[in-house]
Amino acid sequence: MTGCIYIEDIAQHEGQQVTLQGWVTGRRSSGKILFLQFRDGTGFIQCVGGRNDIGDELFDRVDHLPIESAVRVTGEVRADARAPSGFELGLAGLEVVHEAEEYPIGRKEHGDSFLLDHRHLWIRQSQQFAVLRIRATIISAVREYLDGHGYLNIDTPILTPAACEGTTTLFETEYFDEKAYLTQSGQLYNEATAMAFGRVYCFGPALRAEKSKTRRHLIEFWQVEPEIAYATLEDILDIQEELVCFVVERLLRERKPEFAILKRDLALLERVKAPFPRVTYTEMVDLLHEKGVEFTWGDDFGAPDEAVISESFDRPVMVTRYPRGVKPFYMAIDPEDERLTLSVDMLAPEGYGEIVGGGERLADLATLEAAVDAGALPRADYEWYIDLRRYGSVPHGGFGMGIERLTTWVCGIHHIRETIAFPRMLNRLRP
RNA sequence: UCCUCAGUAGCUCAAUGGUAGAGCAUUCGGCUGUUAACCGAAGGGUUGUAGGUUCGAGUCCUACCUGAGGAGCCA
Predict the structure, then answer these.
(1) Is ipTM beyond 0.95?
(2) Among all strands, which nt has the closest C1' to A31 (CA)?
(3) Is the Cβ atom of A48 within 7 Å of strand B at any atom?
(4) Using 50, 70 and 90 to split pLDDT, how confident is the model at A276?
């Protein structure tokens, strides 16, 4: 709209008369002067209006304007230390575009359940604004890194005939005359595209019908999955580390205002620099034992174990070479110890736990065939995947990075549900 | 699926087994620099559902429903 500007550009207009279009997030008045908290989707600003500046009629109307009413405000941009954002708008005029009904979300505390029921409105609130803008920048940075390093984006199907990782529960749907399942991961298809294009990644939703009910789980989550032909486990470690550092660096450059809204301690993020500690699963088991945690070698780390590990480091830690029993059938076997896989999980610091999982894949035909059979997987559905080992099979690997887990950690927030606009959780499909 | 906790006004929560209350929000009034403003007044209730115990149940018991936290599983 001509003549209108956005709050994110407000600093360039100091001293000028501008028009903003957005919504009222709050107001206070003192009879002769009123303060209007205003947002436009790019930021928040306070408008100040005197009764003399805007006239009695408008003053009284604005003084009774419900929260979240849509308005256009016109006035002079002023730098003012008393304003929360450093700038405020000296109100000269205001046009009511739509007067809202009584808004259900107040400025006092609310329960989780109430807020989730009103998620379509909750996302307007400043904390959610900050988290979702940081998420968008994470996605943008991930793509920027991969696109800039020779990776080709090739997305993989959502509807699939079989599980990628046989164990987890699948969402089942009808596919004309047969059953299909919603994807859990693009992993297997990535291996095919990597053999065609060398370096690839897919980015999209993953759906898991797990009855998980924790603050680290979503039924529908987004992940980016790079896959690289000729990559070894060591290569995968380097790439993960570089990618995470790249993303954090860009966030620190571009999203300071959002981190300020979240009151995030940026010193913790500034420490996220290579090299990340690299330790083996077996070494981590020893660490747990040293810390007095009861743990049996061969088990997978539970959430409390991951928390103990990730609290022991001041930056993400990469745990390698998990036992075969806790990793999917397609993981490559460690040539130095066949009880182990060439796998890696990256655990975020501050107790946030796993944000990346990956490693080197099985490249040998006979070993893969045996693994498929041992997993009791339907051979017919995996025949195309096994085929990849017949025509120019090479060492290769990749990883999946969970966008919401990464966002949760980077934002320093408590629950993963706030990192996606409309979270799908157990018992929650709406809104 | 299992364990724990909770459900009372639009929201967040109080209320020894004995008259159902506060703050916020709403409406009205006051206030010229507020930062989740403040001051005064008003309206607002089938205490999640169904049974049971009791002279008397928001409170105790049983079942169910809904939600939250955690476990397992995973990104």
Answers:
(1) no
(2) B31
(3) yes
(4) very high
Domain with CATH 2.40.50.140 in chain A: 7-98
Instruction: Name every residue whose Cβ is closer than 8 Å to that of residue A233 and which is 6 or more positions away in sequence.
Output: A320, A332, A342, A343, A344, A359, A360, A397
* Residues in CB range of A20: below 8 A, 6 or more apart: A4, A5, A6, A7, A38, A40, A45, A72, A73, A74, A89
Please tell me the predicted confidence (pLDDT) of residue A167.
46
Q: What are the pLDDT digits (tens) for A303-348?
A: 888 888 888 898 999 999 999 988 988 999 999 999 999 999 999 9
A415: Cβ under 7 Å from strand B?
A: yes
Query: What mean pLDDT comes out for the span A243-256?
Result: 96
Which whole-number Å values give the CA distances from A289 to A305, A326, A341, in the listed order? 11, 19, 22
The residue lying closest to nucleotide B24, measuring its CA against C1', is A108
What is the tens place of the pLDDT at every residue in A258-275? 999 999 999 999 999 989
**Residue A164 banded pLDDT, cuts 50, 70, 90:** low
Q: List, by residue range, all CATH 3.30.930.10 domains of chain A.
A: 120-419
Q: Would you say the C-beta of A351 is within 7 Å of strand B?
A: no
Strand B at less than 7 A from CB of A82: yes
CB-strand contact A404/B, under 7 Å: yes
The pTM (predicted TM-score) of the whole model is 0.94
User: What is the average pLDDT across A135-162?
Assistant: 95
Quick one: average pLDDT of A70-86?
86
A296 touches strand B (CB under 7 A): no
* Residue A257 near residue A152 (C-beta atoms within 8 A): no
Please, which positions of strand B sit below 7 A from a protein CB? 1-2, 10-13, 23-28, 30-37, 66-75
Domain boundaries A120-419, CATH class: alpha beta
A102 C-beta less than 7 Å away from strand B: yes
> Taking Cα atoms as reference points, which of A155, A267, A133, A258 lies closest to residue A201?
A155
CATH class of A7-98: mainly beta
Say whether the CB atom of A213 is under 7 angstroms from strand B. yes
